[in-house]
Amino acid sequence: MTINEQNYPLWPDAAPQARGTDAIDIPRITVMPAGEKPAQCAVVIAPGGGYRILASDHEGLQVGRWLNRQGIDAYVLRYRLGEKYHSDVSLLDGKRAIRWVRSHYRLEGLEQVGNMSVGMLGFSAGGHLTAAVGTDFDEGDDAAVDVIEHESCRPDFLVLGYAVTNGELRGRKMKEYSPTDVRVNADTPPAFIMHTHEDSVVSSDQALVFYSALCQAGVQSELHVFGTGDHGLGLGVGDPDLNLWPDLLIRWLRRNNFLDAAKRWSVNGYVTVDGQPAGGCWVTLLPDDSAQPFARAYVSPHAEGRFLIPAATGAQSGSYQVVVTVVSTAVYDAVADYSIEDVVTYQQRTTIDRDATLMLTLTDADRLDPHALH
Predict the structure, then answer these.
(1) How far apart (Å, rounded) are the C-alpha atoms in residues 122 and 342?
(2) What is the pTM of this model?
(3) Which spans in 241-369 are helix H?
(4) pLDDT at position 2 over 50
(5) Alpha helices in the chain (DSSP H)
(6) How far is CA 15 from the centre of its chain?
(7) How far apart are CA 52 and CA 166, in angstroms?
(8) Which CATH class is domain 7-255?
(9) Residue 254 gets which letter from DSSP?
(10) CATH topology of domain 264-366
């Protein structure tokens, strides 16, 4: 079967707990490949709609198109809805969608399937479904006749857009929006959470309670609560402030190796400026490949120019622009005065192919405009 943009039923026969054969009874998935080049990342999209409708345009297909432009395969989920189906049945569809995508790649024989990141992104009720899948998953059933059921339904990451995470705390539709924050543990996937302060339908408290649970469990997470913007704005395309959140998401995915799962290497080194050890500065490795994560270290004025970036947050193999941003030339003390007029930025090139040592000897020839990278 060739991957193309088509709708597929999640189950070849009737879905579990199906109560009919109409369109609402048949959960489906729309396949949206990023391009001919195999992607390293895929996202299942769960549009919102209060478990009554699906906002499938601006919280579904258009989100898939945007992900495709970032080199990410997208899969828009049409899950079963109330009042005919409880959200527990929608949860079956969400789990099956993650399994379906993993099995889809495996059946295609794609070599990168072992390193493929499969995440889930949901808005509002779809965000609740995403949080539910991320806190109630299993590793699959190898004994199942249906090979799709062999796959894990644990997403590699979660993206929650103005999501309901606990109906009891929200005080509305409490039985439909089962608490997800209480199920968060150390195995819960990393999460990116977006909400707005002005949301009049789902309070940003719903984001805070899930984020707090992730923090307590030690799960890598990132939270953005924008000051303006009401409920249901999707990618925020009409709001010049809110529309920044998709870029923040891509940066988070890249930083956490979800866009490129290649091995990261440690980088240590020594920085001098005009022959003297650098004072307080940042050493940042910016990859030429936009899918690769950057690596950075802050060099304390006390470090005498030495730095170490551990492998966990280090650089992948490739070509890099090394940017050194000097913010101070003094070791601060109680009576220290100003030591530098403004930020001073330097740039060099390097290639990383294993654990590396960088000896950065900087002069005026390497100096950039003070705000070139800001």
Answers:
(1) 43
(2) 0.92
(3) 245-255
(4) no
(5) 62-69, 87-108, 125-135, 167-170, 205-217, 245-255
(6) 30
(7) 18
(8) alpha beta
(9) H
(10) Immunoglobulin-like (2.60.40)
CA 102 to mean position of chain CA atoms: 18
pLDDT band at 174 (very low <50, low <70, confident <90, very high): confident
Residues 143/181, Cβ–Cβ less than 8 Å = no
SS3 assignment, position 148: helix
Burial of 52 (0-12, 13-18, 19+ CB in 10 A): exposed
Task: Please report, for the chain, the start and end positions of each structural domain, with discontinuous segments joined by +.
Answer: 7-255, 264-366
Read off the pLDDT of residues 179-188 as tens digits, 9 standing for 90 and up: 999 999 999 9
Cα 19–Cα 20–Cα 23 angle in degrees, nearest 5: 115
CA distances in angstroms from 8 to 5, 100, 164, 201, listed in the order given: 10, 10, 28, 32
Contact 262, 293 (CB under 8 A): no
Structural contact between residues 107 and 150, judged by C-beta atoms closer than 8 angstroms: no
In order of 68, 240, 254, 321, 343, the CA distances from 316 in angstroms are: 23, 33, 12, 13, 28
Topology agreement, domain 7-255 and domain 264-366:
no
* pLDDT at site 114: 63
Of residues 135, 283, 162, 271, the one with CA closest to residue 226: 162
Is 334's pLDDT higher than 70? no
Asked if residue 323 has pLDDT above 80, the reply is yes
pLDDT on residue 373: 54
